[in-house]
Write a structure and sequence with these properties.
One of its GO terms (molecular function) is protein-macromolecule adaptor activity. The chain has helices at about 10-15, 20-50, 70-95, 105, 135-140, 160-175; strands at about 125, 130-135. By secondary structure, the chain is mostly helical. It has one domain (about 1-125, about 135-155). Strand 1 (about 125) and strand 2 (about 130-135) form a beta hairpin. The radius of gyration is 22 Å and the shape is extended. Mean pLDDT is about 75; it is low at about 110-140.
Length: about 180
């Protein structure tokens, strides 16, 4: 269970950051923000059950009874989010300690945006055979559209086209090298 796992201490995390290049620090910030967004989304999905406004289809509990498992899951997620935000603060201190600009690592104009309350999940709509359902579009968390989840290339890395071209060239080279008819990993 996740609550039994012991995370790395803040002091050890901060010490490990000293060995990482700036590009790895930037990726770690993106990873942490992505995880936070997923946990926020999960909490928003669990909230109606934790508050007793909804109950699972196969649950014997009345809809007005809070689901203790959901309450506990939200509490645990909030502790993990807090720990991740502390790690982002440690990365910020490391970045600024190196004389680099934190603005390039933020991805968002203001860290306060990370503390916003997650959007509530949409109300169910009529679905098939009288069962409630939601469309994929209406279930989409704001993190997918507000820039929290980002894709792109790492500075100094290859673009998608450059990577594709190099892989294709390497595959063409390997076609004649393989006498056994298999792929070597």
């Amino acid at each position: 269970m996740a609550s039994e796992a012991t995370p790395i201490s803040p002091a050890r995390f901060a010490e490990a950051l000293k060995e990482l290049p700036a590009s790895s620090l930037a990726l770690k910030v993106l990873e942490l923000r992505n995880s936070i967004a997923h946990l926020d989304y999960s909490n928003a999905e669990l909230k109606p059950y934790a508050e007793g406004r909804a109950s699972a289809v196969d649950s014997a509990a009345a809809p007005d009874q809070p689901d203790q498992d959901c309450v506990d899951a939200i509490r645990e997620n909030e502790l993990v989010i807090e720990r991740m935000q502390e790690r982002i603060a440690l990365i910020k201190a490391e970045v600024e300690g190196r004389g680099l600009s934190w603005v390039e690592f933020q991805g968002k104009p203001d860290d306060e945006e990370m503390k916003e309350e997650p959007a509530a999940p949409p109300a169910p709509t009529n679905g098939v055979n009288g069962h409630a359902s939601t469309t994929a579009e209406s279930r989409q968390h704001p993190a997918w559209s507000d820039g929290t989840f980002t894709t792109g290339t790492i500075r100094g890395g290859l673009s998608d086209d450059e990577l594709r071209q190099q892989l294709e060239a390497r595959m063409r080279e390997m076609e004649g090298d393989d006498d056994e008819g298999g792929m070597h990993l």
